[in-house]
Design goal:
The chain has 9 helices and 14 strands. The protein has 278 residues and is an alpha+beta fold. It folds into 3 domains: 36 residues, no CATH class; 119 residues, Uridine Diphospho-n-acetylenolpyruvylglucosamine Reductase, domain 3 (2-Layer Sandwich), CATH 3.30.465.10; 98 residues, CO dehydrogenase flavoprotein, C-terminal domain (Enolase-like, domain 1). Strands 4-5-10-6-7 form a 5-stranded antiparallel beta sheet. A 4-stranded antiparallel beta sheet has the order 11-12-13-14, with helices on both faces. Strands 1-3-2 form a 3-stranded parallel beta sheet, with no helix packed on it. The longest helix is centred in the C-terminal third of the chain and has 20 residues. This is FAD-binding molybdopterin dehydrogenase. GO terms for molecular function: FAD binding; oxidoreductase activity. Pfam families: FAD_binding_5.
């Protein structure tokens, strides 16, 4: 779609002062998908030259905000030596998008849109990701993905602040994972997406609920909970107003699927454990 209110596109390397009507341009798949009458200038991140995927010495994985979904998918399938590697492809496939979108859409764009069905939000929240944010004055701050997305379309970004990267800790990458997704349609947007991650070191279990809720909820248990304990934890953490409501699913249906998929994930990851909750 033509953005007929945009009068200029600038290179982000120039570090020019931020102005009202500015927006960061990554892949542009959202920006050019619908009218943006409030925009006047796009700040293009395409020439920043950030390495899409980096494995620091500590074994973590740093994903640049400009890393495309296609690049992440290829890396997870061919180059990521981690127990949790299959989860990356599962979340990439949750886009249900064309190859054109896969090759342009970015991880950072998906997070910064803050949409409940954003599968990169689901992936990085479930693996305990941390966002690196850069302000206009060059200062940096870090915030967990589960705290970065604060509601449907809302995120913890100040005016002109930039999402530089998301880092997934090495320990999370070695977790055994379980993935469940539900949609009202065969090729529809996620109405509920639940991911479980079982820590091989201490046996703790994290269950992350997204798509069904206005923001991701990551519930952590020092030991795998029973069915009743899991349900009680979800009820305590997710309020009635936190279940999302749109054309892709009513809150009552999303709540039902959230509980159902969370239990399936719990059962998948705890079956066979000595301390299995019944």
């Amino acid at each position: 779609m033509d953005l007929n209110t945009v009068t200029d596109v600038r290179d982000a390397r120039l570090r020019e002062p931020w102005r009202p009507g500015d927006a960061w341009l990554g892949g542009g798949t959202y920006l050019f998908s619908e009218p943006q009458p409030h925009l006047r200038r796009l700040i293009d991140l395409g020439a920043m030259g950030w390495e899409p995927l980096t494995r620091p010495p500590d074994g973590s994985l740093e994903i640049a905000a400009t890393c495309t979904i296609a690049r992440l998918s290829r890396y997870a399938r061919r180059g990521l030596d981690a127990v949790a590697a299959p989860l990356f492809e599962q979340c990439c496939r949750a886009f249900l998008a064309s190859f054109k979108i896969w090759n342009m859409a970015t991880v950072g764009g998906n997070l910064c849109n803050g949409l409940p069905a954003g599968p990169m939000i689901s992936l990085t929240a479930a693996l305990d990701g941390t966002c690196l944010l850069r302000a206009q004055d060059g200062s940096l701050r870090e915030v967990k993905v589960v705290d970065f997305v604060t509601g449907a379309g809302r995120k913890d970004l100040a005016e002109g602040e930039l999402l530089r990267s998301v880092t997934l800790p090495a320990r999370a990458l070695e977790c055994r994972t379980a993935f469940r997704q539900a949609s009202l349609y065969g090729l529809g947007r996620s109405g509920a997406l639940v991911i479980g991650a079982l820590d091989p070191v201490d046996g703790s279990l994290a269950v992350t609920i997204s798509a069904a809720t206005v923001r991701p909820f990551r519930l952590w248990f020092p030991l795998p909970p029973s069915r009743a304990q899991l349900r009680a934890a979800i009820e305590a953490a997710v309020g009635d107003e936190d279940w999302f409501d749109d054309i892709h699913g009513l809150p009552e249906w999303r709540r039902h699927m959230g509980f159902r998929l969370a239990e399936e994930v719990r059962r998948d990851l705890t079956t066979g454990l000595q301390e299995r909750a019944r």
